[in-house]
Amino acid sequence: MTMHRRKVLKGIAGAGVGLAALKAPYVWAQDAPFKIGLLTVKTGPLAQGGIQMEQGIATFLKQKQNTLGGRKIEFISADTGGNAAGAKTKAQELIEREKVNVVLGPLAAAELLAITDYVRDNQTPLISLGAAEDVTQRNANPFVIRASSTSGQCTHVLGDYAFKELKFKRAATVAEDWAFGYEQMAGFQRTFEEAGGKVVKKLWAPLNTPDFTPYIAQLANVDCVANGFAGSNPVKFMRAYADLGAKARFPLLAGWTAMDDALLRSLGDEAVGVVSAHWYSSSFDTPSNKQFVADMRKDYNVLPGGYSAGMYIAGQCVEAAIKLVGGKSVDGKTFADALHKVTLDDTPRGKFSLDRFGNVVGTVFVRKCERKDGQLVNTVVKTYPDVSQFWTYDEKAFLANPVYARDYPPAKNLE
Amino acid sequence: MSFAPAGFITVRRVALAITFALLLTLPFWVGNSYYINISSQILLYAVFALALNVLVGYGGLVSLGHAGLFAIAGYTAALLLDAGHGHFVADVAAIVVTLAASAVFAVLALRSTGIGFLMITLALGQIVWGIAYRWASLTNGDNGLKITTRPSPFGLSLNGAPAFYYTTLLVFVVALVTMILFVRSPLGASLRGTRDQPRRMNALGYNVWLIRFFAFLFSGFWTAVSGLLFIYYNQFISPPIAALQTSAETLLMVISGGTATLLGPIAGAAILVIMKNVVSSYIERWNLVLGIIFVLIITFMPEGLVPGVTRLWRKGWSTLRGRKPEPEARKTGGHGS
Fold first, then answer.
1. Do residues A221 and A337 share a domain?
2. Which of A146, A217, A382, B6 is deepest in the core (most CB within 10 A)?
């Protein structure tokens, strides 16, 4: 009888508009849509990365026809403006007004730190792209996972590779004057010096440096320079570095943001030869990466880098967690626990799992920038499988030390 | 207000009563805690804008360093809470420290007026930003400071959105009342005097410097209070709060709403907070919209939104009653009403 009545009702609605008929399966499903909220940056100096983040998750949802593990997905994007107070308000918007089931992002470390307590208090899981080390270390949060990397995760590899494979003995570092720069360069310094090298100069440029000449002019008597710039600064820095003739004298090494594949189209010959360590490579041969790169090319005409791959992978984590809870509507804590259990075999960065702090253990690629058929490419020269945020160190000993900072570990070899 | 038609005063009173009733019942009719939080933000920025308006509007002293004072209050409270002190100690200390900083700011900046004053306050504000950013061992640099709890005065927890809203509303009302009293007080009148005729005031025996100094402290006090509301609201503070952009945004609130009016900064705060937080989730280019709004305000209501709307309203009212609009001079003379 009820069937009959519903049919009639559907018939009435369907007679007017086909839309009602389209929505019918949704009415039949027992659960409301699963809501994904993205905290990104669309205004200000970090906007480029933020837009790529949105493209990454949009590409994933399109591939999956907006359905993950049987749940219909509703996607909401919010622009934090790249600052902490904005991130807080936008997190409130996503969690309190939109009642999202999971938050992806934010981009910058300060934004992430501003909202980690808030997401815990509100029992909403978050998949971070921000790299602040302590969020998955000393202040690990049961509601946060990170499938990209900590700041030091790639530069540990870079320091090791620079000494052992490239045979550099003396290095200088240069990065932005903020936590992401400090933590990256600390990771580089630690593995480089423990292998036997010396970091003889550490330079810090403000985020909005108009001209890098004064910093480049301070470089002398080193075998290599490691840089940890982010946003659009690497483009400016590398151009100045080549123009001033430093590139010919001191080979350049780079962290993941400083040589992201998405930057390649803004770069020219100044980038050729730069060696970088990244947790993602657009040329990596996995089925999902091929599909991802092809779709990004088709829809946005870009080569994807870490920002978009990070959010694509975050989408895969959400899908895996939805499957783990059987597609049911569950509370935030249960979903966060499911996210912590995620292991994936086929992602654009290869297979990975999460450690007990929710941080990724996965491949790190060492790449060298080359020109092939007129195009710049980051060719993978070595892969380090199963790299953890603790590198090869003992977890307990690692966590007993202070968090990486501008002056930790202390640079004893400065000249 | 004595020039206004009798009907206008009644309308104004009714409007104020309705607004107040709406504010008092806001958590019950907006429902969603997100909008309650946005309202708390509007009120806390309104307190900040009112504080800045004391100098900008009534004193004619345009400060671009108030974000520094705002951040000093927030950082002081955060550092003391972090060190294990109670909320009462932290809050009182934050206000005292900010007042001391205001006094230093005032002594340095009041050596001049106009552009000179603006540049000195800008430099002082940037020094605070620099300290917050670079003295990482104290302020935790770019990563900022967190506080874990909001205070619970008399055992009432302020953790929920409505509870925090009512606290902010209470502080806002107290701030507004003291502003009204200040503006009507002899000190307020003499401050306006120093704005319009500093030399004549001096000749009349007023100590112009001291009047401005007190006004600066009064402004600093309410800046400190709004800084405390900010840190308790966000439970987080980082260097961008101390930067020029915060000062400039607050100045925009004052100027777009209407300087030297009491309702102007409140309207300005509402516009900016709503544009930044609510409209930005519908329009990606909200900065552009905000810019257009400011251009429109400056073009059609150069005196600011509140005085501008009042002028248009009176004009409309008079036309409706078949009277001639009042002469222009009288209305612009109504500063500080």
1. no
2. A146
**DSSP structure class, residue A166:** T
pLDDT, tens digit (0-9, with 9 covering 90-100), for B169-211? 999 999 999 999 999 999 999 999 999 999 999 999 999 999 9
Range of the domain at A211: 152-281+363-400
Per-residue confidence (pLDDT) for residue B326, from 0 to 100: 56
**Residue A17 forms part of a structural domain:** no
Q: Which residue of A has its CA nearest to B245?
A: A83
Residue from A360, A394, A349, A363 nearest A149 by CA: A360
Distance of CA A74 to the CA centre of its chain: 22
Among A81, A85, A90, beta carbon nearest to B241: A85
Looking at chain A, which residue has its C-alpha nearest residue B35? A97
The neighbouring-strand residues paired with A67 are A72
pLDDT tens, residue by residue, A10-26 = 433 433 443 334 444 44
Q: Is A297 left (phi over 0), alpha (psi -120 to 50) or beta?
A: alpha
Residue A103 lies in a domain: yes
Let me know if residue A70 belongs to a domain. Answer: yes
The tally of domains found in chain A comes to 2
The least confident of A23-27, A298-302, A351-355, B187-191 is A23-27
Which CATH number goes with the domain that contains A221? 3.40.50.2300
Distance of CA A148 to the CA centre of its chain: 4
Q: Please say whether the dihedral angle defined by the alpha carbons of residues B233, B238, B242 and B246, taken in this order, is positive or negative.
A: negative
Contact A114 B280 (CB under 8 A): no
DSSP E strands in chain B: the ranges are 145-146, 236-237
CB contact under 8 Å between B37 and A118, yes or no, is no
Q: Does residue A264 or residue A6 have the better pLDDT? A: A264
Torsional sign, CA A395, A400, A404, A410: negative
Strand partners, A368: A275, A379
Q: What are residue A175's DSSP bridge partners?
A: A204
Residue A176's SS3 state is strand
Query: What is the distance between the alpha carbons of residues B184 and B176, in angstroms, rounded to a whole number?
Result: 12
In this prediction, does ipTM exceed 0.95? Answer: no
Q: To which residue do tokens 């600064």 refer?
A: A233
Structure tokens at B215: 């006004």
Span A201-219, average pLDDT: 91
Q: Are residues A193 and A117 in the same domain?
A: no
* Distances A350 to A52, A55, A280 between C-alpha atoms, Å: 20, 20, 9
Give dist(CA B103, CA B132) in Å, integer.
Answer: 20
In this structure, the number of other CB atoms found within 10 A of the CB of residue A180 comes to 25
Residues of B with CB under 8 A from a CB of A: 32-35, 37-38, 41, 133-134, 136, 141-144, 146, 148, 161, 234-238, 240-241, 276-277, 280-281, 284, 287
What are the sequence ranges of the domains in chain B? Answer: 34-242
Q: Are B57 and B186 in contact (CB under 8 A)?
A: no
